[in-house]
Structure formats: structure tokens, C-alpha cells
Specification:
10 helices, elongated, single chain
């Protein structure tokens, strides 16, 4: 599910009644089909929800439109924020997200939407939500959030170059001019699923390690793919996988910027030769 679908969804949320806390509601079980909210610590939700969805037939497919944004890991509380809106816990009153939670999620996740040319939706204006107190969903305590694995601030970039059948010199120059180079296989699912459409398949081989940490490399590349979808989607056809030599640089924020991608096919002897020669190559 692309982020453009998410923006289409939130653009249609506008009615003021969607946030009418005095409306008559009913409690229903959180359905297993609502995959984005399967880890919430409660089993029943209110309908209509805080986005105005009055039935599960409406709420379940609409909740699915948030999946791609949540997969980017743009904020540790993004999922809790979304689920408090689409599947609010069934208590004697609505528990809204606190304004501070909305602001934190917005400030961290809005750059992901900006990568696709969209602003944070007006329907989720943080001023709609109450100031932090005992009647709303509060932020993570500092002693807990300090140990949460926060991803680097999302940053989108212009699309890197993709060059097929490069010369040996071209590949070696790319290795010399960047911080790192990896051999990675990117796959693209053909059918919708609970997993991201684009994924890094299998292990990643570090050709030039640079500042990369082996245990963090896959997640950094995965995150780049999800944030930079307009650049990433043309790299692989649906239902297929493609092996690439990927070069890039590390940003001060801890995110990566890809510089070039070379499709690594069996016939591309120059890429194989460059990877072999690199250990003894002097730039």
C-alpha cells in the first residue's frame, strides 16, 4: 500500500463529526484483520472511532492504509498514535492521544510524507487533541523512551544513479568516492500483505564497510527503500528480486544517502572484478 493511498484516506477524514466525543458508540472486538493494531494491550475498540469510521467494514481497510508509514519506523509511538484513532480502547469514555504525542509523531513522520510531496493532513491537526493530562494517551516515560530504538530522522533524497553494465573504472571510482558499498538483493511483493512491499532479501555483504555497522545495515537500507519509494519502486518489478551493488554515504544524523546502484547480473564481470580488486585498490 503506497503512501499516496494514505493521503487519500486522511484527506477524506475531514468531517467535524469524526471527532465528536459525545456520539453514541458501541464496543466490538479488535478484528485480526486489523493487522496494524494487533499488538495493542486491549481486546475491544469503540465504533464509531475517532476518525469517524462507523463499521469494521470501513475501519479495517482504512487502517491498512497506514501500514507503509508505520513500517518506516518514523517514531516509536506512531503505531500507538494511529491505533488510538482507528481502534480506540473501549472504556467508559474516549481516550484521545495527547497533543504532545501528536506533535512528536507529526514532527518525526511528516518528513516521510514530505518525501512524497504531501504535508501532514489537516484532519490530524494536533490542536484538535487535549493538552497532556490524565485524560489522554501520554508520551513514553523518559526512562523508557531513552532505551527505545529510535531511527534516525527521516530524510528523502534525489534518486541515485542506476547504471547497467558499468565499466571496471566506473565501479572502482564509485567505491572510492563514497563511504560504503554493499551487495544486497531487493525484492518486491506482487500481492498486498502485512509486510512492506519492498524488502532487503537475505544477508547483505559488505564490500566497503566504512561507517556501517553489520547488524544495522539491513535496517538502514530497508528504511531508505520505504522512505524513498518513488526512487525505489522502479528498481524491481513486482514479484521479482534484483541483486545490486549499492554505494552511498552516511549522514551526520545516522541515516544513509545512496549514491549509485549497479544491477549485479552474472554477466557483469566488471562488478565482480571490482569487488575482488577493491581490497588492494588505491584510490
Amino acid at each position: 500500500m503506497h503512501l499516496s493511498h494514505l493521503l487519500l484516506l486522511v484527506a477524506l477524514l475531514a468531517p467535524a463529526g469524526a471527532f465528536d466525543l459525545g456520539q453514541t458508540t458501541r464496543c466490538v472486538p479488535v478484528p485480526p484483520q486489523m493487522s496494524v493494531c494487533q499488538d495493542v494491550p486491549y481486546s475491544e475498540m469503540r465504533l464509531p472511532n475517532l476518525l469517524g469510521h462507523s463499521s469494521l467494514e470501513e475501519a479495517v481497510p482504512r487502517s491498512d492504509d497506514w501500514r507503509t508509514l508505520l513500517h518506516t519506523g518514523c517514531h516509536p509511538q506512531a503505531r500507538a498514535f494511529v491505533c488510538s484513532l482507528v481502534a480506540p480502547v473501549c472504556l467508559d469514555r474516549f481516550i484521545q492521544p495527547c497533543r504532545s504525542v501528536c506533535v512528536a509523531v507529526r514532527d518525526s513522520c511528516a518528513p516521510v510524507l514530505a518525501c512524497h510531496g504531501h504535508a501532514w493532513p489537516e484532519a490530524l491537526d494536533c490542536d484538535r487533541f487535549p493538552a497532556q493530562d490524565d485524560t489522554c494517551l501520554t508520551p513514553l516515560p523518559k526512562h523508557i523512551s531513552a532505551f527505545s530504538k529510535d531511527f534516525p530522522q527521516p530524510v528523502c533524497q534525489s534518486c541515485p544513479s542506476v547504471e547497467e553494465a558499468p565499466s571496471l573504472k566506473t565501479v572502482l571510482d564509485a567505491l572510492c568516492l563514497t563511504d560504503f558499498a554493499v551487495k544486497a538483493k531487493i525484492s518486491r511483493r506482487r500481492l498486498p500483505s502485512a509486510d512492506p512491499e519492498l524488502t532487503v532479501e537475505g544477508p547483505v555483504e559488505l564490500i566497503r564497510r566504512g561507517p556501517l555497522l553489520p547488524y544495522d545495515t539491513v535496517s538502514l537500507i530497508q528504511r531508505w527503500l520505504l522512505i524513498n519509494l518513488r526512487c525505489a519502486l522502479p528498481l524491481v518489478r513486482p514479484g521479482r528480486a534484483q541483486l545490486y551493488l549499492i554505494t552511498g554515504t552516511m549522514r551526520a544524523s545516522g541515516s544513509i544517502q545512496l549514491s549509485s546502484l549497479f544491477p549485479w547480473l552474472k554477466k557483469d564481470l566488471h562488478i565482480t572484478a571490482a569487488a575482488r580488486k577493491w581490497k588492494h585498490h588505491k584510490c
